[in-house]
Design brief:
This protein is mainly α and about 625 residues long. It has 29 helices and two strands. Belongs to the ST7 family.
């Protein structure tokens, strides 16, 4: 118990020091436009807080003095200690067995609880208590406000991935797309968009592709949260307020909310009976009912004719008022979606030039719809064609400091630079003569890509198994890494030596940013909420990649050592009682020798009547 108290005190003091240091750093980085009075008050508060961190040393010295006074002073505790020593010497070995066994049991229970709490919440329960309850007491109202602000920020950032807030407003998603966590470090980023979920631009078809995994091993490749986000997205982009009351749209609203695929398909068929040119119903049937890509393409071509007719009609009526503008936006979203899915069908069927034309036309015809990330589809098709100059042209347009980044942008830029030197690169030769200018440029591009998403290299190097990508991804997260590697691994293998160069250089990124959660190099610090969001998007059978890897909390290691040590002592005491009792007495004797030596030295220095004078007070 005494060791546990010491460990708890050390942990609390460690968090206290870290919190005060964080306050000092924040005070040093204050904006210049603050008033002089507030700056002076903040500096005084920082100095006082900094001084208070060293009061523990004074308290420790005072505690030693009081203990010494209690032992040698008028309380006669030394006699009580001698009596207790005589009592312990008369105890049987069974008492020591019971004592060590009970201590091992209690510490084992604490270890199990700490381990469960760490696996569930990612932090130590005892350390969390010390942060939430002891730190506010030591730091006052300032720490309370800081903790509340941090909790509010984490709540806001987490709400962006909740099933209820994923795609409630299509306009808000489009307007905020430039403030994602994928921007460069010169672009301001708010906490609310730190873990914004994006539609996977290369999402697979449910009936023709995802369903195969279910039939093969019975595992669900999509989570309910992921499918719920898709349903909310379809409700937002494929319908509008003017569609209320129409029977086919009411049926589709029910279909998007249903969880059973058979029910959704039946409702889509019923909607087609009401309106044979109803495009959203054809899209649902192509996505979920069609079992082959050829059948998907056939249904999407039928949907394309209906979408183009509706788009032309609404375009002609744009000048008739605001309502027609809303209808035209809905028809535009449907047309873009159908064309892009047709381009993906052409890509899967090997018609690469046809797919390239579709994606090029979409980018030219709808340049403002960057929220759909159609340029990532174009990059992937151009890489399949090995048309690297055109890929470089697309990157020159979209790899801009003012635009949100993605793994496709960063790693494709690294691939193109690695392509120029990878075939002749040798780590042994490079270590002797140094890196050339082209090799240095390639290595820097790889470091930039790894800093943006550190999960990708393990999938590209096949150190982790790849699963089917989800329908939504989190930028800089494990879900984005899976989606990128699933489609782009063949392109890296096609470039001779590219994976070897990646293998030799990617880990060097972590030496540049040893504390990625606190400081970034080319991008903002790595978000702290990626693990939670990725667990909602990825299936349960997948081992989610976590960066940076969380270290075991101090208390788990401490309780594990305490439990193991006391259990070993209990076993040895039970097996060899005489030897264990002798060792225990010998240890107590050795432990008392330095204490006795210190007390004698202090008595020789201090006046003999000091404690009588103190007793009078």
């Amino acid at each position: 118990m005494f060791l546990a108290v010491i460990a708890f005190t050390l942990s609390s003091f460690r968090h206290y020091i870290m919190f005060n240091h964080q306050n000092l750093v924040e005070d040093d980085n204050e904006d210049d436009d603050e008033t002089n009075s507030s700056t002076i008050l903040d500096k005084i508060r920082s100095i006082v807080t900094y001084i208070c961190t060293y009061l523990w040393a004074i308290s420790f010295i005072l505690l030693i003095f009081i203990l010494y006074a209690s032992i040698r002073g008028p309380f006669n505790i030394i006699n009580s200690f001698n009596t207790a020593t005589m009592f312990f010497n008369t105890l049987t070995p069974k008492f020591y067995v019971a004592l060590t066994g009970t201590s091992s049991l209690i510490s084992g229970l604490i270890l199990i609880f700490e381990w469960w709490y760490f696996k569930r919440y990612g932090t130590s329960f005892i350390e969390q208590v010390s942060i939430n309850h002891l730190t506010p007491i030591l730091n006052g109202n300032e720490s309370n406000n800081s903790l509340l602000n941090n909790n509010d920020a984490s709540t806001l950032s987490g709400s962006s991935t909740s099933p209820l807030n994923g795609f409630n407003s299509g306009n808000s998603n489009i307007n905020n797309c430039g403030m994602s966590n994928g921007t460069d470090s010169t672009t301001p980023v708010t906490g609310t968009n730190e873990c914004k979920v994006w539609k996977n631009p290369c999402a697979l078809f449910r009936g023709a592709e995802y369903q195969r995994l279910i039939q093969y091993n019975g595992k669900e490749p999509l989570t309910f949260h992921d499918m719920n986000l898709s349903a909310q997205e379809h409700q937002t982009f494929f319908s509008c307020d003017l569609d209320e009351g129409k029977p086919e749209y009411e049926m589709m609203q029910r279909a998007w909310r249903e969880r059973a695929p058979s029910t959704r398909i039946q409702l889509a068929r019923d909607a087609l009976e009401k309106n044979s040119e109803f495009t959203p119903a054809l899209i649902l049937l192509a996505e979920e009912e069609a079992t082959t890509i050829i059948e998907v393409e056939r249904l999407l071509k039928q949907a394309l004719k209906c979408a183009e007719n509706a788009y032309r009609k609404s375009q002609q009526l744009l000048e008739q008022g605001h309502n027609q503008d809303i209808v035209h936006k809905r028809n535009t979203n449907i047309l873009i979606y159908v064309k892009r899915r047709l381009g993906m069908c052409a890509r899967k069927l090997g018609k690469l030039r046809e797919a390239t034309k579709i994606f090029r036309d979409l980018v030219k015809e709808f340049p403002m719809m960057s929220v759909f990330n159609i340029h990532e589809n174009l990059i992937e098709v151009l890489l399949a064609l090995q048309n690297y100059p055109d890929v470089q042209g697309v990157l020159a347009k979209y790899d801009d400091i003012s635009l949100p980044k993605s793994a496709t942008i960063c790693y494709t830029a690294a691939l193109l630079k690695a392509r120029a030197v990878a075939s002749t690169f040798s780590p042994d030769v490079a270590s002797k003569r140094g890196l050339t200018t082209a090799e240095m440029s390639a290595v820097e591009a790889i470091h930039r890509a790894v800093e943006f998403n550190p999960h990708v290299p393990k999938y590209l190097l096949e150190m982790k198994s790849i699963i089917l990508p989800p329908e939504h991804i989190l930028k800089r997260g494990d879900s984005e890494a899976i989606a990128y590697a699933f489609f782009h691994l063949p392109h890296w293998k096609r470039v001779e030596g590219a994976l070897n160069l990646l293998h030799c250089t990617w880990e060097g990124t972590f030496r540049m940013i040893p504390y990625p959660l606190e400081k970034g190099h080319l991008f903002h610090p790595y978000p702290t909420c990626t693990e939670t969001a990725d667990r909602e998007l990825l299936p349960a059978f997948h081992d989610v990649s976590v960066f940076p890897r969380k270290e075991l909390p101090f208390f788990i290691l401490f309780t594990a050592g305490l439990c193991s040590g006391t259990a070993m002592l209990a076993l040895l005491t039970h097996q060899y009682p005489e030897i264990a009792a002798y060792i225990a007495r010998l240890f107590l004797t050795w432990f008392s020798v330095p204490i006795q030596y210190l007390t004698d030295k202090i008595e020789s220095i201090l006046p003999s009547n000091l404690f009588q004078q103190l007793a009078k007070f």
